[in-house]
Amino acid sequence: MAIEKDFFRQVMGRFATGVTVVTTNYHGTPAGLTVNAFCSVSLNPPLVLVCIDRTSSVLPLIRESGIYAVNILTTEQEAFSRCFASPSEERHTHFCHADYHTAATGAPILDGALAFIDTRIVAEYAGGDHIIFIGQVEAMGASSQVAFADESAKEDATLVGHEEEMTSEESLPLGYYRGQYRQLADGYRQPSLSTIYDTKQREQREQPAASSENA
Ligand SMILES: Cc1cc2nc3c(=O)[nH]c(=O)nc-3n(C[C@H](O)[C@H](O)[C@H](O)COP(=O)(O)O)c2cc1C
User: Fold this and answer.
1) pLDDT tens, position by position, 130-167
2) Ligand 1 centre distance from Cα of residue 142 (Å)
3) Range of the domain at 54
4) 136-141 contacts: CB < 8 A, separation 24 or more?
């Protein structure tokens, strides 16, 4: 069986993701599009990537500005996901009526997002009909906490002093699975990888001491 577009979408749609709006600031004009092809790339240096369709009207703006911010949406922000994925005037002229602040780069950080990652583009790769933009993290925030790679960037950041409006502690992430918006089902929780890793490390630290006591 050949790899048909629809089947590719069906298979990839089994990978549950969050939903983001990737924004940029082109000579003072905000622009953005809905993106779920986003992931973390590197801790040191802190890098992330987004994949943008070559035909997107926002692509040249991201490329030329050299900056983008990833806004991770909450379930209350589904309307933004729909608006930033549409070719409407509401989006292109009014930035989907979204309120926003800025952090390090000047790219819009949507008020009320679950978290944000504000980046400067350090590399661009061809990825078939998409372009992969690698962004170095200049600022990021979640749960009213914001961190900057360079503290001097705080001076121009309009979100400083408004952190509480910026990112939401209690809200849930907007999910996307098999072509539909979803909410996480509450009640299913397992220890995170870091908890498992910390427990293993503690056990390993304690074990040699116990065996030398026995010797
Ligand atoms: C949930 C969801 C995820 C999307 N993910 C991406 C993505 O990762 N990359 C992308 O280029 N477009 C993605 N899109 C499509 C764009 O948001 C949409 O095509 C947008 O209108 C493109 O911008 P344009 O109008 O400037 O062409 C996604 C749309 C939705 C609804």
Assistant:
1) 999 999 999 999 988 999 999 999 998 999 888 877 77
2) 24
3) 5-189
4) 136/45, 136/46, 136/47, 137/45, 137/46, 137/47, 137/48, 138/103, 138/104, 138/105, 139/103, 139/104, 139/105, 140/46, 140/115, 140/116, 141/103, 141/109, 141/115, 141/116, 141/166, 141/167
Does 194 map to a domain? Answer: no
Predicted local distance difference test score (pLDDT) of residue 197: 75
Domain annotation covers residue 211: no
Number of domains in the chain: 1
Minimum-distance ligand 1 atom for the alpha carbon of 181: 1
Atom of ligand 1 nearest to the CA of 91: 25
Confirm or reject: Cβ of 176 under 6 Å from ligand 1: yes
Distance 34 CA to ligand 1 centre (A): 5
Does a structural domain hold residue 103? Answer: yes
Does 207 map to a domain? no
Q: What is the pTM of this model?
A: 0.91
CATH code for the domain of 156: 2.30.110.10
Cα of 204 vs centre of ligand 1, distance in Å, is: 46
176 phi, psi to nearest 5 deg = -140, 125
Q: Locate the DSSP E strands across the chain.
A: 17-18, 20-26, 29-35, 38-42, 47-53, 67-72, 100-102, 108-110, 115-127, 130-142, 145-148, 174-177, 180-183
Residue of 19, 20, 34 to mutate, ligand 1, most atoms within 8 A of C-beta: 34
